Amino acid sequence: MSGPSDFQPTNPALKWIERRLPIFGLIHSSFVAYPTPRNLNYWWTFGAILSMMLALQILTGVILAMHYTPHADFAFKSVELIVRDVNYGWLLRNMHACGASMFFFAVYIHMFRGLYYGSYKEPREVLWILGVIIYLLMMATGFMGYVLPWGQMSFWGATVITNLFSAIPYFGESIVTLLWGGYAVGNPTLNRFFSLHYLLPFVIAGVVVLHVWALHVAGQNNPAGVEMKTEKDSVPFTPHATIKDMFGVSCFLIFYSWFIFYMPNYLGDADNYIPANPGVTPAHIVPEWYYLPFYAILRSIPNKLAGVACMFGAIIILAFLPWLDNARTRSSKYRPLAKQFFWIFVVVCIGLGYLGSQPPEGIYVIAGRILTVCYFAYFLIVLPLLSRIETPRPVPNSIADDVLAKSKGKVATAASVMLALVVAGGLFAGSTQTAKAEEGGDAPPAQKWSFSGPFGTYDRGSLQRGLKVYKEVCAACHGLSYVAFRNLADPGGPGYSPAQASAFASEYKIKDGPNDQGEMFERPGRAADYFPSPFPNEQAARAANGGAAPPDLSLIAKARSYKRGFPRFVIDFFSQYQEQGPDYVDAILQGFEDKVPAGVTIPEGSYYNKYFPGHAIKMPKPLSDGQVTFDDGSPATVAQYAHDVTTFLMWAAEPHMEARKRLGMQVFAFLIIFAGLMYFTKKKVWADAH
Amino acid sequence: MNPDAATIAAGAPIEVDLTPIAEGQDIKVFWRGKPIYISHRTKKQIQEAQSVALSSLPDPQPDSARVKAGHDQWLVVIGICTHLGCIPIAHEGNYDGFFCPCHGSQYDSSGRIRQGPAPANLAVPPYTFVSDTKIQIG
Fold this sequence. Notes:
Oligomer: heterodimer
Number of helices of chain B: 2
Order of helices and strands of chain B: HEEEHEEEEEEE
Distance between the termini of chain A: 23 Å
CATH architecture of the largest domain in chain A: Up-down Bundle
Strand content of chain A: under 5%
CATH superfamily of chain B: Rieske [2Fe-2S] iron-sulphur domain
Largest sheet of chain B: 4 strands, antiparallel
Number of strands of chain A: 6
CATH topology of the largest domain in chain A: Cytochrome Bc1 Complex, Chain C
CATH class of chain B: Mainly Beta
Radius of gyration of chain A: 28 Å
Helix content of chain B: 10-25%
CATH architecture of chain B: 3-layer Sandwich
Helix content of chain A: 55-70%
Structural class of chain B: mainly beta
Distance between the termini of chain B: 23 Å
Shape of chain B: globular
CATH topology of chain B: Rieske Iron-sulfur Protein
Largest sheet of chain A: 2 strands, antiparallel
Number of strands of chain B: 10
Strand order of the largest sheet of chain B: 5-6-7-8
Shape of chain A: globular
Number of domains of chain A: 3
Number of domains of chain B: 1
Largest interface: A-B, 35 and 25 residues
């Protein structure tokens, strides 16, 4: 379709370049004059959305890499420091982390669209296979990116996924050693994953060029599934497709921003805010939501090699789709049976995703096996069979006929697309939330927090009181090592002045050195110092506390969670409920009971806590009424202490939350206006095309 | 991309003193970045491990092949699930041995797979008894 362009620049400088390198002609023929079917619907804007996501991921990733340290000892901390100290680091990180999810979300829609409208059929087989290659590269890139923050899920995800290769006969073990660069997942693994994570997006970009090239040779498919024949069937790419894509992109950005600014941790796992520990496996290892269907297939097969083979087979089978489905009619619109089976297949995929997030036991395993069979049956039985037995409905003669036939009932399209987007996103993405560990603990009661919701801010008084509780009670055993004294004076924090923060710091003794004599010495703290930890190392903390090291509290409000369950996680998506962590911390502090209920045995040296998973906690009841006195007349009760210290710890975990929500409002206002403008511009441009 | 010289050097053999481990207890040491469980098995555990019918095991191996002769009470295994590499929890599961929290594999008091997706028994690392109370792993 994109033959030699007759485009000639008029500017003499451009003319000079064009004669030597016809790049403007190339751009003109590919993105301006390029004929695009005039009946494309909004599902076709996901190509543009994906291009934008790739660009955004590369851009944010390059900047993040400037601040990131790929070393097992520093990686976790460097990510935290990006979020806390780098200018707009929290924004970059949220954009990149949520961006990965959005990228996959868009690619799944793009793939399902191809499936529904038969975009893989002759003459677009190579185009489709290039797409499958991009998808595989994306999965590899996404996996390695998830390893980089070096939290618990990063580490154990890396362990489980690299061990998949050990199932390969003969070479398995040596491949795994090659991936690890050692005897187990460790620093060399992190280093090579970082290198590859930086490399692969550019490989993806290269394959995307091939993908677009192949697209421009074969021409776009369209909802009718008939090829363009005359001028009347097409509209020029610019302005028609360009403006439509702009509208699609801006709607997608609104959806994306919802996560970036309001629910950055909704798609993540609380366990990844715990630094990697090679000695402790988390109770449930769950991959990111976009791998869950394949993870479910892996787990539903009781044999290791067969499980791994099926998991990879589930992706590879896509590449053979053009030959599995021989039906001549492309679009499922005109294939009554294929249409129904397509939707069943969508449900099967979402079902597998849900099962992948559940523990591998009982009914979940059985259901996983049934759906795995359904998944493969769709490709291996249903599609080949349908192409033989199905009688398709007549397809329109041309695209122009198709457009004329359905010019009414068009208004609802955009609205229904957006609705489907949001609902599907909430459902599919949220299934990961259900995987949070909650063994034998009661669900903590939901509290009222000043910082919840889109306009939430921290209650300054509560932060200051919470700091006092931390300093006088918690600090005896728990560190707060990512928070510096200077942060107490940061905007959006407890609201102290820099002088007050310095004075606060000077009450602490900080170890420094070595001095000129080569000795370590103690000096008063400075604003730039971090809260000193009560124990010199984890072993000392463990030894002093009966074998259980008190966790550092810097991230505790984000590193703890509990199971929300269906349908609450769907509601949470719309209500922006993000306070599982604070609810849990508050509940633990108030959940101590002297009387152990019948049927529960608490080991020696442990205490009964109603909300702690397993109920036996090593920490004795930390707070009692009247223990800390407040200057502002707030009640000296455990409930008040727990509420205040939890608010303080939430701030410690998320110091830029107020800036995040404020910027979110501005971005939303901008995007909604921008999307509106794009919509009306698009209507104007397309007025004569419908 | 294979392990470099420093990594290989750090994987040299280590010695472990067994005296502090009471009967029924176990410790976890790290060797080559892998957790090694050293269990001081009780009489009951030893008996269970020895009496099970080999034909009922997915990966048949007698208990005597998994411990050193004369040191029946000591079980030394690499604490890495042979399924996908998680760390099984000691003293859990239905077989008085190990339970892997990731995908539900269960191992008995000899570290042999009894139930779940793991294909093989927990690996026994190369080790020797330097004395009655000390082993060298590696």
